[in-house]
Amino acid sequence: MRLRKKRWALPELEENPYIYINPYELNGKWHEVFKNDQPMQLEIGTGRGEFIVELAKRNPDINYVTMDVESNIFVYAGRNIQEAQLDNLIGVLDNAENLSKIFTESDIEKIYINFCNPWPKPRQHKRRLTHPRLLNEYKKVLKEGSEIELKTDDDGLYEDSLEYFNAEGFEILETDTDLKVNENSIVTNYESKWRNLGVNIKYIRARFNG
Length: 210
Ligand SMILES: C[S@@+](CC[C@H](N)C(=O)[O-])C[C@H]1O[C@@H](n2cnc3c(N)ncnc32)[C@H](O)[C@@H]1O
Prior knowledge:
By secondary structure, this protein is of the alpha/beta class. The chain has eight helices and eight strands; from the N terminus they run αβαβαβαβαβαβαβαβ. The protein has one domain: Vaccinia Virus protein VP39 (Rossmann fold), CATH 3.40.50. It has helices at residues 9-15, 30-34, 50-58, 71-84, 99-102, 132-139, 155-167, 189-196; strands spanning 19-20, 40-44, 63-68, 89-93, 108-114, 142-152, 171-176, 202-207. Strands 1-4-3-2-5-6-8-7 form an eight-stranded mixed β-sheet, sandwiched between helices. The radius of gyration is 16 Å and the shape is globular. Bound molecules: S-adenosylmethionine (SAM). S-adenosylmethionine binds at residues 44-45, 47, 51, 67-70, 73, 95-97, 114-117, 129, 188, 190-191.
């Protein structure tokens, strides 16, 4: 199902001082954007931004960039990010396929991917955010030794992602097929919806060793 385009979403995002809709011009200048040299981490597939706003609040000594391709949804993340008024969090409207146009080699120290679209049909697999096509794009900007964390409700995506990480030379550090909530967890409404339905949340932590 295609979402009806909200015509007001892009103009609203353009007006939001915490959102960049032309992020290529920032490539190589991220420390100027954040006005410091703190490590930079990335979330891909922001949704409404609940996860990254909370993470950035908890870790003021890390800079966070969150990215989503869909202005219809990202506009709500933009509101949450603007309301939080954090110095260490900004959003970019773009496709993860373009990551290496936005960041340079070793810019990113960690990537978070939460509940990305599972794209279940084989002909759709290449659109998955953990597909080797995208992992290769991430490698261009990840610092050696940095990690990717994936949370998903989808069994097929979980199983295939383990294969994708292995095939692309990532080291699997941790897996869980029934991730429990603890005091460090950040649970979005989207995740709660699945948990309330009794769906196990699956988790992978993988390291890029260069
Ligand atoms: C199901 S939502 C999950 C939202 C959020 N991470 C959460 O856990 O609540 C997946 C998000 O990924 C975004 N997305 C899908 N493909 C993308 C891509 N290639 N680049 C950037 N964002 C993408 C979608 O627009 C959507 O907002």
